[in-house]
Design goal:
7 helices, Beta-barrel_TonB_sf, 22-stranded antiparallel barrel, 2 domains, 735 residues, single chain, membrane, receptor, globular, Maltoporin, Chain A, six-stranded mixed sheet, cell outer membrane, 39 strands, TonB-dependent receptor, Immunoglobulin-like
Amino acid sequence: MKKWMISLMMVLLVSGIQAQIRVTGSVKDQRGRILAGANIVVKGSYDGTVSDSTGSFSFKTYEKGKQFIVASSIGNKTVEQEVTIDSLPIQIDFILKEEISELKAVTVTAGSFEAGDKKKAATVLSSLDVYTTGGANADISAVVKTLPGAQQVGEQEGLFVRGGAGYEAKQFIDGTLVNNPFFASVPDIASRGRFAPALFKGTVFSTGGYSALYGQALSSALIMESIDIPDRSEVSASISTVFLGAGLQKVAKDKKSSWGGNYGYTNLLPYFSIVKQKPDYFRMPEFHTADLNFRMKTKNGGMIKYYGTFGASDLGLRRPNIDDPNLKNAFGLNNINVYNNLSWRENLGNGWKMNLGLGYSTDYNDIDQEIQNQQNQKTTTGQSWIDNNNFQIKTRSDLSQIKAVFDKRLSGISVLRMGGEYMYFYNRSTFNNQTATLPDHFKALFSEADLYITNDLAAKVGARFEHSSLINKANIAPRLSLAYKTGKGAQMSIAYGEFYQKPENNYLYATTNFGYAKATHFIANYIKNTALQTFRVEAFYKKYDGLVKTHPSFNNAGAGDAKGIELFWRDKKTFKGLDYWVSYSYLDTKRDFLNYPKQLQPTFAANHTASFVMKRFISKINTGFNFTYSYATGRPYYHLVQSGSQFTIADQGKTIDYHNLGFSFNYLTSLGKAYAVIVGSVTNVLNSKQIFGYNYSYNGQRKEAITPPAPQFFFLGVFLSWGVDRRQDAINNNL
């Protein structure tokens, strides 16, 4: 009996051994690199193993018939292979494709800087940086000027980027165009931006090669995304040397909606009484600003947002007349601006998303320009070059727009975007009772794909079609960007794109027989980004065609180019508690446009521009100290004199180099039950002489430097909030 049982056990053991089939093989990625630690199992069983340091594996299985062998590895897509298990060993090799994820994937960065709270490779500035940059006085455009590519132009508003004029850079909020992003223009004095930084959760400053979703900007796009629903309700108030303000933000108990508004009043009479200005203001600058907002979450996880602003300003100033020092130029301005933006972001299901934007804005200017005598009375001289400065202009600029963008998620995180926009521009100008209008039905279609081939390789491919009824011309603009990850936190990007823009209205009032101006961008960059340090270098070439010429006739015969290299370094690591960044731009640009007799370096472009920004927050005293030093080599200036149908250069040169050291501090404290931030700021601390260019008399015998209205600007303000501790934001940003 005992011998029989032993014999039976031996038979079972042998048959069991014979039933086990060995499965061997290897696991590698698409590039042939070994994948150690990959899991290999027979689907639905406990039979399996992991690959060794050589990528090889071997295990035995009792399963029979048709089965699936599954190989998986973190960061790669799981692969199944069907096999038939009988009596023979199985050899099977796996090649796993990389799993593309938003956390690991490369980001296309050529030509763009991001400012916001998103943890992306392109992010170089936080939203709080806009408030704490020394001397910037919380002006988004002033902070952007500390980044590579932007010029230090102080006599007119706008962003002057890589050899482009200020009107060649456009601003967008939640996808729609902002028609008048700056306060109304005053001759030889730059106006600040209309929008407060607290409105935005993210800002992309594109110095070139921007997305096909945007157009009509030859040089640059500043793309801003407004905040969603705040965390909690808040009441705020502010008082400073130049303005008073108050605001309310109410958040629903279920955190699914919010509404709010702000009002501000600015009057520069007290400030100008202390800090004397070069112009003689006969109407002190006075500003009223107000805004309203509403935000609501939808059932499908989308968001509806409304934002509207109102602004009214009034001022008047006198300057000596350059042709006759005994006379004065008196300039008066009254401006009313209204801006409305409604956006709807929605999930449509099956990988589809919708972004819908509606906008309406109107901007009204009433400008009086007079020649006055020493008694401030309007006068005429009989000399046309002087008397032509007696005029009145009334302008109205309306923009109605609708834009729809549809996103379709492709495989992995790749996305296809498509959509279109319609904008109706209505511009009306009355010059000394002579009225002209410029209506334009502007239409655009666009498509763009973000394609992630691997986590290390991505492409953005798109195109844009546009048509303007005003000039009755169409264009097609291709865009292409590629990015390749070269190592941990490091990547390279290249970009190519064609960009078009209509001529400015002051030329279209003369004739609509124009085409589009065109700029072709070529960009290459390298960026190395860690949690505390960012290094970036970028080279570019930009070719201009179809620029506006005003002599000998109005046409699109102008051309030019711009090329250069830019550096950016930000460091929060090397010096404990110290945050700083350095930017440098080299620009070589020439263009033949307007009344230029040949290709010249434009008056708004400097060859070398640099900024150094330093921030230090001292927790023991709850105070942050911020310094910004900006430098630019001298910009060219020209006195162009008409000779027949052409212009010649009667005088030329370069201004002195530009130096500006800005300082600000922010002290965090409490006043009663209110959280408080006390802010002080000074521009041009060293009182450096600044000259932005020159004005010439009619005969060229007088030459006057264009300088700031005052050498320095001082600011002191107290910002109070109830419900939200803004102080903590500043502390957390500096830990």
